[in-house]
């Protein structure tokens, strides 16, 4: 009983800190509450986020602000077509000492940080994009045959322009699966855009202040994993993820006719973590079925693909996710 009371007290204290963090982020990234909440959920869950939106919507500004508010040592890589893996990971150089002795010295790349901003990640070649695979999964990189640990915590928040934009490359499926969620960044509404104009075109702009430190974020991530998840919520997660696998028994005819490949177990793990984060951000002690429905699209949409016939019909993954939620008896579709 005492242990449960302690857990509740810790969660209540963390929720107050999270409210302060959201308020600080809102000082520089205005009017996109859902985008902010999903980004914070990714960090609280210990994962990586892929921010997708047109140029000029503030994606880079958001990542920079989150680094400040969460107290993380941030690094940035501007992805370009000529970027090489060594530009991200680092490399060894031959160095001559004072006595004339020569030895190789490792020069760490910008990935050796706690929050990496991978700006316009889909403008680099697939070879360079793949340099992040080991780092995102194992929190270490192998350079010149030696494993080198990264910062703790380590998060990647990547920004991506829509693939229809000229000069972009699709991310490899294996790398997409490493992102905990895809966060779509839409245009702000009129009132929010008015507030943006007033806040950013004056003589002085608001600056965000740190609310967390790296150690406190790690503690929050540990606390999140202690939050209870009910059997009903867990069953909903399993039902939802397995419903999109066309080769699984029980898959609907529409999924079999439309989906080329579906989400794996990492998608279920992502939902188990992010529904807890959403509950935390909304001031609750445990996640609900509504959390699963709300996070279905950002967690699943980049982990599955339509086949050619479905694309030719004009089907969309977001529509398929919404319809499948309804078929499973959960009528609240994931928010766009």
Topology, pairings included?
Elements lengths: L1 H25 L6 H12 L4 E4 L6 H11 L4 E5 L6 H5 E7 L5 E7 L6 E5 L6 H4 L3 H6 L1 E4 L2 E4 L5 E6 L12 H6 L2 E4 L5 H11 L13 H13 L4 H13 L9 H6 E3 L3 H17 L7 H12 L4 E2 L1 H6 L3 H11 L9
Parallel strand pairs: 1-8, 1-9, 2-5, 5-8
Antiparallel strand pairs: 3-4, 6-7, 10-11
Helix pairs in contact: 1-9, 2-12, 10-12, 10-13, 12-13, 13-15
What are the main properties of this structure?
336 residues; alpha/beta; Rossmann fold; Helicase, Ruva Protein, domain 3; five-stranded parallel β-sheet; two-stranded antiparallel ribbon; 15 helices
Summarize the structure.
The protein is α/β, with parallel strands linked by helices. It is built from 15 helices and eleven strands.
